[in-house]
């Protein structure tokens, strides 16, 4: 049996302010640091879980969540692989905007399309916009055509698949127990792939911050079981809090 853990980063400063974040490199809030610590404690309490390798995005909130959680779990020494393909969805021109104010201006239905539609992208940013990733040195070696100016979830799935196949799945099939620390939408994309969720139903998938989700997979990497660590009701409440973010 192959084992995979997915962990959404703890609350960020912009999560707390209810802003569209995307690829903007925002740090954890104090509450997010506490969530990351608790995630590590939950990992440590799962006595049969012996992690081997960590995958994160290149955004600070995921990097720091992994560092804090692994330290709390007594696994700071694990090898870490970071890649931009695990980044959050790029929210284009919405990045930095307040979600409730955006709903008031454009309507709740339009906001829901931007936030959760599988194939409806947000307004894009131009190459001259500072929010375009071409201006960030961490993407200097990524071909310009691969960098998004804004993404729908379908775009995130497309850019995630190569990393899943070449890196994460490869580690799993080699016998490693893997933890992926990433973001709400990159993990929604990964859960969609793992669990075969339809394009329509994935809109209702809410992933709580700071609560590890453990998968057991067969030799074809098909899901045998999946559960959040710790209290199931707490995970449901945290997922509901995510759902309410847009008001």
Description of the structure:
The structure is a single chain. The chain is α/β, with parallel strands linked by helices and 247 residues long. The protein has a single domain, classed as 3-Layer(aba) Sandwich (Rossmann fold). 39% of the residues lie in helices and 12% in strands. It has 8 helices and 6 strands, in the order βααβαβαααβαββα. It has a 6-stranded mixed beta sheet with strand order 3-2-4-1-5-6. The longest helix is centred in the middle third of the chain and has 21 residues. It starts with a strand and ends with a helix. The model has no long low-confidence stretch (mean pLDDT 94).
Strand count, sense and barrel status of the largest sheet are: 6 strands, mixed
Q: Name the helix and strand elements from N-terminus to C-terminus, one letter apiece.
A: EHHEHEHHHEHEEH
Rg (CA only): 17 Å
- Reading off the top of the CATH hierarchy, the class is best stated as Alpha Beta
Helical fraction equals 25-40%
Q: How would you classify the helix and strand content by structural class?
A: alpha/beta
Spatial strand sequence of the major β-sheet:
3-2-4-1-5-6
How far the N terminus sits from the C terminus, by CA atoms, comes to: 41 Å
Strand residue percentage? 5-15%
How many individual domains?
1
Unreliable residue stretches = none
Number of helices: 8
Second rung of CATH, namely the architecture:
3-Layer(aba) Sandwich
Give the strand tally: 6
Nearest-integer average pLDDT: 94
Fourth-tier CATH superfamily name: Phosphoglycerate mutase-like
- The shape, in one word, is globular
CATH topology-level name: Rossmann fold
